[in-house]
Structure of DNA polymerase III subunit delta':
Amino acid sequence: MRWYPWLDSTYNQILNAYRQDRGHHALLLNSKRNNGENTLIYAIARWLICSHPDANQCCNICYDCRLMNVGHHPDYYEISPENNTQTIGVDTIRACINSLHKYAYQSKVKIIYIEYVECLTDQAVNVLLKTLDEPPTNTYFFFKTRDYMRISLTLLSRCMRWPIISPKESIGLQWLMKNREEINDILLAQCALRLCDGSPIEAEDMFKLGLWKQRLELCKCINYVIANGDFLKLVPFLNICKNDIYLYWFITVLVDALKWKQGIKKRFLINLDQVDLITVITVHWGIVSLSRQLQQWLVLLRYFQEFTNIDRELLLTYRLLNWQQDIVESCLH
Ligand SMILES: [Zn+2]
C-alpha cells in the first residue's frame, strides 16, 4: 500500500480516538479531490482488524493481517455501485447487514466500507439507518464522498464527518517532484497541482495518464481559434466527457485571464505556463465581458454535470459563438 505523508496527522488523530474508546462507529470522509481517502480508510481498517496492533500500526504478521494482505478477509466488506445502474441497492445492503449479525468469521471486529455513499438508493439508506442506530458490537462503518450535499440528511446525522483537505502546496510540490522524475520544472508541478485543487495524487495522474499533454493541446487550440476566428474548432475538445475535464481546464484559463486583467500577479495564476495565452485573451476581451463569459461557462459546466440527456454539441456551439461575439463587442467599445 502506497502511503501519503499528508495523511499522517489525520490517521493518528482517528486512531487515537479508537485507542481511547472514543472512536465513532460511522465515519464519513469528505474530500473534493482524491487526497488518499481510500488509503486512509484501508489503513484504519487494517489497524482495527489486526489481532496484535503495535501503537498506531498493524502488526502485518498475524493471521488477520495476512488475510487483509491478500484481500480476502471475511470480516471486511467493501460495497461499490452496481455496474449497470451506478447505484447501491437495498438488496446489497441487506445482504451485508445480515452477515453482520452473524458472528465474526475470523476477527474480533467487522468493517464495512461504502466508497460512493451518495450512490445508495433511498431504500438502501433506510435499511442502513436502522443498523447505524443500533450497530452490532465491534462493527465499524466507513463512508467516502466527494460531495456530502448529495447525501441524505438523516444519514449524515448518524455519521462523524471528517473533511480531508489537500496538503499545503509546498508539501504537494515536494511529494510530486520526488515521485515523478519527468517533472523537472517546479512551475509545471505547481501548475498541475493548482489545476487539481492541490491534490498531489491527481496532479501526478495528469502526467502519468497523459492528461498534461492533452491540456497542452487544448491550450494550443485556444490560441489558434483566437488567431484565426474559427472558434468552433474547440467543440470536439470541450465535448469530451471524461468528467468535463477539458471544459474545466478551459474555464481555468478564463479565470486566469480575468485575474490578469485585474492586475493580479503571475504567481497567483493557475495556468502558470500559459502566460502568453492569458495575455492574448486579455487583449481581445474586456473585463466586463470576461466576467460575464466566465459566469456563463460555469453555468454550462454545472449543467453538463447535472444532466446527461442534453445536446452538448449544440450548447457548446452556442457558447463559443457567444464568446466570439463578445470579442467584436469588446473591440467596438
Ligand atoms: Zn496484525
In short: The mean pLDDT is 92. Strands lie at 26-30, 76-79, 110-114, 139-145, 160-163.
